Amino acid sequence: MPLNHKHQMVILKDILSNHQTDCCGTVSECEQIERLVRSLLGNEQVGAHVKSVLPDIYAYGQNGKYSTDLDSHILSHQQQLSEWVNQLT
């Protein structure tokens, strides 16, 4: 059974929140961020306010996936992570 957009939002928010609080993450999580954002961007039920931040979150996931030091990448985005978590609420 596929996840609906509300479940996808919860998962995305959880990953971003974990990155913010733990200051670490995995390449798999970055890939999951990309998949979730792509799906949410294509969903008509997702509000414009959420869709406006999704490209930045996608770029964060993509840059993290290719980063040579993922923990530093996450650490350097602490402010954005906090903002994104609040905007996805």
Describe it:
The chain is mainly alpha-helical and 89 residues long. The protein has one domain. It is globular and about 35 Å long. This is YtzH-like protein. InterPro entries: YtzH (IPR025547).
What structural category do the secondary elements indicate? mainly alpha
Number of domains: 1
Shape: globular
**Total helical elements:** 6
Rg computed from alpha carbons, rounded to a whole number of angstroms: 12 Å
* Helix proportion range: over 70%
Order of helices and strands: HHHHHH
In the predicted model, the low-confidence regions spanning at least 5 consecutive residues are none
Summed over residues and divided by their number, the pLDDT gives a mean of 95
Report the β-strand fraction as a percent range: under 5%
**Largest sheet descriptor:** none
**Distance N terminus to C terminus?**
24 Å
Record field, number of beta strands:
0
Chart the SSEs and their pairings:
Layout: H1 5-22, H2 27-41, H3 48-51, H4 54-65, H5 70-75, H6 78-87
Pfam families: YtzH
Organism: Thermaerobacillus caldiproteolyticus
Protein name: YtzH-like protein
Short description:
It comes from Thermaerobacillus caldiproteolyticus. With 89 residues, the protein is mostly helical.
Give me some keywords for this one.
89 residues; mainly alpha; globular
